[in-house]
Amino acid sequence: MPMDEDAVAALYRDHAAALRRFARGAVGSEEAEEIVQEAIIRVWRHAPDGTQGLRPYLYRTVRNLIVDQHRLAGRRPRTVAPLDDEGGFAAAGGERFDELLDRVVMEEALARLTPDHRQALVAVHYRRLSVAEAARALGVPAGTVKSRCFYALKALRAALDEMGVER
Questions:
Q1: What sections of the sequence does the record tag as coiled-coil (predicted)?
Q2: pTM to 2 decimals?
Q3: Which has the least CB within 10 A, 7, 74, 92, 119?
Q4: Residue 103 resides in a domain
Q5: pLDDT tens digit string along 2-50?
């Protein structure tokens, strides 16, 4: 199949920056760029018809390439000592890697929320503050905190769906 350079360039222009940010959280910058380029080529060759499902398909492809790279690296002899529990990829069975990848996905999705929605969601769901405590910390009424959390969760679900995260 001859490669349509304009189509590949358009895919890269429209999606590469977001995919690179997503991949960079799990692998280094150089590896992220290679993964994004490979994902763009794969998606261009095998993308679903239409553009509606393209973005989630791109994110799933990048995620699969990151997992493949991690598995392949696990089969190679280590040239450096594994990181400790605070630092990263050292746990057996890839559990730390999966946790890291989940965290990267969540951080990317949270970054898509408005600052007000993100602050309310983080206060209530991550810092485990009560609605009243979050309202005092954010300087807004309790009803506003509830409303922001409701709409933040809705937007977060939409962002995760767009990124191809399955529930």
A1: none
A2: 0.51
A3: 92
A4: no
A5: 456 777 788 788 888 888 888 877 777 778 888 888 888 877 777 655 5
